[in-house]
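Fold Annotation — chain and its backbone
Encoding — discrete vocabulary of local shapes
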Amino acid sequence: MLPTDLLSVGETSARSGVPASALRYYEAMGLLEATRTAGNQRRYPRHVLRRLAFIRAAQNIGLSLDEIRTTLATLPESRTPTRDDWTRLSASWRVRLDEQIAALHKLRDGLDSCIGCGCLSLDRCAVSNPGDITAGRGPGAGYLPRTLRETPAHTH
């Protein structure tokens, strides 16, 4: 590898749009690998930009960093995903996207009468909550579709 094929943390951050703190976090999680200079500064191979794009796309779909790490671990020698890898790996995300789309449609279609919160304050609501039964579901918007209720994965 030529020295010009290595990017500093700042260069990698600027090119990828991923904050330097996230790069270090991803490295600690095993999502990225870096080499070190004689002065112990991180250097990332240029192809890590494609890997970071893959990570961002997977996060936008709703995958957690643990799921992304598991997915990337299926690649030989921790290499950057190729076009064929992307096609194969992203196909399994179709179901998740379909669930999210269906949940968003359900939210949109009921938005004028209920946002799925489980509150007791509306006099007209498409979702009944007698005796505050929703409190048993835990905090947050209990009637919101599951895929929209989940806390987003740590995205740094």
Notes: The first helix runs from residue 9 to 16. The first strand starts at residue 6 and ends at 8. The chain has seven helices and three strands. The domain at 3-92 is CATH 1.10.1660.10 (Multidrug-efflux Transporter Regulator; Chain: A; Domain 2).
